[in-house]
Backbone:
């Protein structure tokens, strides 16, 4: 990319009101970075509906700024090495998502990734519930054609998005975390193209947990369990 460009995240692509969906932002930075594998660290909330500056960095990464304020930075790293458990079956992922929708935890936001009122055309619908007998949360979902590019594929920034919200669900349902946690960092590796209109399974598992912080692994697979992408993330709960 050129030395810098100005981007504006549409309001519909929010996580919390007025705040851009972290997985989408991470995917935008990853796509613009010269390095193949990056970790995106969030320093401040990225606003929706307002222009921000995206610039390359000398190390092959890039950064997002608002005036003098650093919002997020993509830094070259080794590919995520988090061991990836086998995906749950499609039927078990469907059941997990249905159980979540039937009894969601308090404090759900109208998030592009996991908002309960989103339709297949207006959100990813990552309604991750627990998988009985396994330390996983999972959701079965099918991206609508409206979310795809001209090539019929889910854009890379939305693949990154599919690796974001499951981490929040893992913290809430597997580690007893409260509402309001935010993605502090996200690193992913995309393994294969992801077509729209086909069933997918997003799932996550806990890593470490201490104080206000916890780490998770997340993955995206086809309905048959073939891995499409894997990631690791750090989440932080707000101060009380």
Residues:
């Amino acid at each position: 990319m050129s030395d810098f460009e100005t981007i504006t995240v549409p309001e519909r692509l929010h996580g919390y009101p007025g705040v851009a969906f972290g997985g989408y932002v991470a995917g935008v930075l990853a796509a613009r970075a010269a390095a193949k594998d990056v970790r995106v660290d969030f320093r401040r909330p990225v606003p929706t509906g307002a222009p921000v500056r995206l610039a390359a960095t000398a190390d092959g990464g890039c950064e997002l700024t608002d005036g003098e304020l650093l919002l997020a930075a993509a830094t070259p790293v080794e590919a995520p090495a988090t061991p990836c458990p086998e995906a749950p079956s499609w039927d078990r992922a469907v059941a997990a998502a249905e159980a979540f929708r039937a009894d969601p935890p308090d404090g759900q936001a109208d998030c592009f990734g996991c908002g309960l009122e989103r339709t297949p055309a207006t959100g990813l619908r990552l309604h991750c519930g627990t998988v009985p007998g396994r330390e996983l949360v999972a959701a079965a979902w099918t991206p609508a054609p409206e979310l795809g590019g001209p090539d019929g594929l889910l854009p890379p920034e939305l693949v990154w998005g599919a690796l974001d919200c499951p981490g929040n669900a893992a913290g809430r349902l597997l580690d007893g975390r409260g509402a309001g946690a935010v993605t502090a960092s996200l690193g992913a590796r995309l393994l294969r193209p992801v077509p729209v209109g086909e069933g997918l399974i997003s799932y996550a598992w806990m890593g470490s947990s201490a104080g206000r912080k916890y780490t998770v692994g997340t993955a995206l697979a086809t309905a048959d369990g073939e891995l499409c992408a894997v990631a690791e993330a750090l989440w932080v709960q707000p101060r009380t």
User: Anything to note?
Assistant: The helical segments are 22-32, 90-102, 156-161, 165-174. The chain has a mean pLDDT of 94. The first strand starts at residue 4 and ends at 8. The longest helix spans residues 90-102.
